[in-house]
């Protein structure tokens, strides 16, 4: 057991030094922002990282139960609890974690190193596309990269010339049925959050027949992306070409009218 006063001092010192802090104990959590959620009391692991990210983990699954990034973190002692508050202004979000018992707390001095470079540098392809989305469609403007959702991470979220949001998913290999359902899920989440029409574009070297059929049924779009992946980390991945997107069923029917 760790006393709240001592825990508060450790957390504040860790935040000041931009270390990684691990807190293990009984807690509940409330999130307020684009939506609201409440995590009931339970034994959990809370991670605070030097970049201002906070995440709550349970003894199942890889992804955290709750998390926020790029936050300002404060700590205070309440009535019979230790309160950890993470706030963010743009967008306006907050995550409040109430500890009723702290079993263990540690702070580690860790260097912040470069991001892991994936084999073939898929991140390079994302970065290239973010610099100029006009190769996919004129008028596309990037909004966010590696957008986190409850059940995954979308590669790129953009906005088209008509003001519609566009979710872009990049696949290094042939797109399959699961790739299409994944894109559809992200698209629906953006549409629900923003409340306006959202499109989905799948980029891949090729697409399986059943995946294309589902893609057309869902009104999604596909563009064949020809790229060169480089195992040498000193070289960047190269986009060699991009074939035009296939017409969606809606667009095709519109031309027949």
From TrEMBL:
Asked if the record carries the keyword Nucleotide-binding, the reply is no
Q: Which superkingdom, per the lineage?
A: Archaea
A Pfam cross-reference name = NucS_N
Q: Where is the Endonuclease NucS C-terminal domain?
A: 121-229
**Record key words, sorted:** Cytoplasm, DNA-binding, Endonuclease, Hydrolase, Nuclease
GO CC annotation: cytoplasm
Q: Where is the protein found, in the record's own terms?
A: Cytoplasm
The enzyme's E.C. designation: 3.1.-.-
Listed Gene3D superfamilies = 2.70.180.20, 3.40.1350.10
- Every copy of the Endonuclease NucS N-terminal PH-like domain together lies at 21-113
**GO function term, MF aspect, one:** DNA binding
- InterPro entries in UniProt: Endonuclease_NucS, NucS_C, NucS_N, NucS_N_sf, tRNA_endonuc-like_dom_sf
| Family per record | Belongs to the NucS endonuclease family.
Per its database record, what is this protein's job?
A: Cleaves both 3' and 5' ssDNA extremities of branched DNA structures.
Put simply, this protein is called Endonuclease NucS
The species this protein belongs to is: Candidatus Iainarchaeum sp
């Amino acid at each position: 057991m760790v006393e709240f006063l001592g825990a508060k001092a450790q957390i504040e010192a860790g935040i000041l030094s931009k270390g990684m802090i691990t807190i293990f104990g009984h807690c509940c959590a409330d999130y307020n922002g684009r939506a609201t959620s409440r995590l009931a009391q339970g034994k959990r692991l809370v991670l605070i990282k030097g970049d201002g990210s906070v995440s709550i983990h349970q003894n199942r699954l890889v992804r955290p139960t709750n998390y926020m990034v790029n936050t300002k973190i404060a700590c205070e002692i309440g009535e019979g609890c230790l309160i950890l508050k993470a706030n963010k202004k743009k967008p306006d979000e907050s995550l409040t974690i109430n500890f009723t018992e702290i079993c263990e707390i540690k702070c580690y001095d860790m260097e912040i190193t470069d991001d892991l470079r994936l084999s073939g540098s898929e991140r390079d392809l994302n970065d290239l596309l973010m610099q100029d989305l006009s190769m996919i469609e004129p008028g596309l403007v990037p909004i966010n990269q590696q957008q986190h959702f409850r059940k995954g991470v979308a590669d790129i979220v953009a906005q088209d010339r008509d003001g519609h949001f566009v979710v872009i998913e990049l696949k290094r290999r042939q797109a399959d049925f699961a790739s299409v359902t994944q894109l559809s899920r992200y698209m629906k989440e953006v549409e629900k959050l923003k409340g306006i029409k959202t499109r989905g574009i799948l980029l891949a070297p090729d697409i399986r027949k059943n995946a294309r059929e589902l893609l057309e049924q869902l009104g999604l779009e596909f563009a064949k992306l020809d790229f060169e992946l480089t195992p040498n980390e000193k070289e960047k991945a190269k986009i060699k070409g991009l074939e035009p997107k296939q017409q969606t069923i809606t667009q095709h029917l519109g031309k027949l009218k």
